[in-house]
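Can anyone check this?
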Amino acid sequence: MAESRAAVRYAKALINLAIETKIEDKVNTDMALIVATVEKHPKLEEIIESPVVRSADKKEVLLEVFKDFQKLSVQLIDVLIDNKRISLLYQVAKKYNQLHNSLKDAQVAKVTTATPLTNDLRLKVLDKVKSLTGKTTSIENIVDESILGGFILRLGDLQYDASVSNKLEKLKREFTIN
């Protein structure tokens, strides 16, 4: 799903309004819930993007799914529906989260491991990332058994691959060259 310029504009407008009303953290929670819900339930995304489903029905479904939203978040849904841009909801929410993180000087480190991270290991990774970047960091643990062991750390545009599968792939390339 490519990020559209319109989604960026809506997200910037939303964060500016949220800052003015001093509820940017609460709206960020709402936007994070949209992102998580759409990623977990692809049928919701199909409904939102479907040209067959009426806008009134989309609005009804969204307001039922996201009952406890801030007034500003509900107004975003209304504006997107009125402007026939509701299909951008996921992109707007994702971009809002990024803008909020950069505003708060926070970042999300994605750590891919073969098994779930223990709390002790999670704290060690957080400490190391914070010491390297100086920013507040949260960890998103992605479990992927195909990496066999080790980890892959993604922080923004940077990636450090210390997985066993990557090391085996490097060995394979070395043997095929010789």
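Reply from J.R.: I decoded it. The beta strands are 106-113, 136-143, 150-155, 158-163.
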